[in-house]
Amino acid sequence: MFDLEVALRRVLSAAPTVQDTQIEQYNQLTQIMHRTLDPKDVKGNSIGGLLIHIGSGTKDEHIRTMSNRPVQQDDHGGTQAPPSGYSFLRKEAFLYIVGHHVIFCGHGFLSASTVASYLSLLSNKLRENNPDIVQFNIEFKAVGNCDKLSLIQQHGVKSILLDVSAYQLSRNRLYQDSRSTIAKALGKVGSVFTSELSDEELEAQSEIHINLEVLLNGNSRASIEAQSLMQEQAEEIIDDETVNQGFSITTQQGEVIQPSDVKLSKSVRIGRYDEANSLLPDSAFTAISEYFLELQSRNLTEQ
Q: How many domains does the chain have?
């Protein structure tokens, strides 16, 4: 099992400043803004692991403003430039890493896959002058919620339903990179609708709903092979990180499960940084480290 914590400690040792961690791609700056190498609980006891706060923004990008009290028919607003030497923080993520375990909290659409790619690029960049750094190419995979997965395994799968608009399938190219056989096959229906359309045609697409269902004939009386195939396809959809909308799975007992339902996760409340559209690092660090300790106490992390 790859020990990401050990690998990242070597990376951070070779990158003592924020600038050392900066990766720029197509004017997009991504960097480790905060790090805690010896996290502690509320009582001051060391809990192990490490915490990092990753921020991302577009270099020299201005932001659009709008009037608080417009009196005219149209509000053309304005633009606000960042202070000299700064960029606006648009996306961020907080990670608690313990061995090969990662608790991820994203804010502003900084995805786990983007963060994994950034950390891999950073390790490769720093390795050029630091041969002790392990070169890695990681991928974060969500852990399944055992309670929801057990419903599929115990009750079987009656149907797999795709329910999206034609606009989503054609414009957003849903499922084109999916590892799921069914998701990729059903997603091809979107190729019927071209994305090179006028605004009126695009609006019409949003009103066209696509409803496709793979249904097990006979339910629990179907052959063992057919039931196994349905279960395999359902689990394939659940395991695929690219499938996060549109699909629902109905068990033979009638339970309806969305792919997002079976990802082990928790909603947390995190304080805002001043009046900005950013989060307080300490508040986020506390939330994600406490969640990991909670999972440990429930024996949901392998030892």
A: 2
Same domain, 277 and 235: no
> At a CB cut-off of 8 Å and minimum separation 6, what does 210 contact?
162, 163, 164, 165, 166, 169, 189, 190
Read off the pTM.
0.70
CA distance 303 to 243: 29
Q: What whole-number distance in Å separates Cα of residue 156 and Cα of residue 160?
A: 11
Residues 11 and 106 in one domain: yes
- Count Cβ atoms below 10 Å from residue 283 Cβ, excluding itself: 15
* pLDDT of res. 104: 96
- What is the spatial distance between Cα 107 and Cα 126, in angstroms, rounded to a whole number? 26
The residue among 263, 251, 253 whose CA lies nearest residue 152 is 251
Are residues 216 and 238 both part of a single domain?
yes
207-244 core/surface letters (b: 16 or more CB in 10 A; e: else): eeebebebebeeeeebeeeebeebbebbbbbbbbbbbe
Range of the domain at 73: 4-142+265-297
Q: Taking the chain, what is the end-to-end CA distance rounded to the nearest angstrom?
A: 12
Same domain assignment for residues 269 and 258? no
Question: Is residue 112 situated within a structural domain?
Answer: yes
pLDDT-derived band of residue 202, with 50, 70 and 90 as boundaries?
low
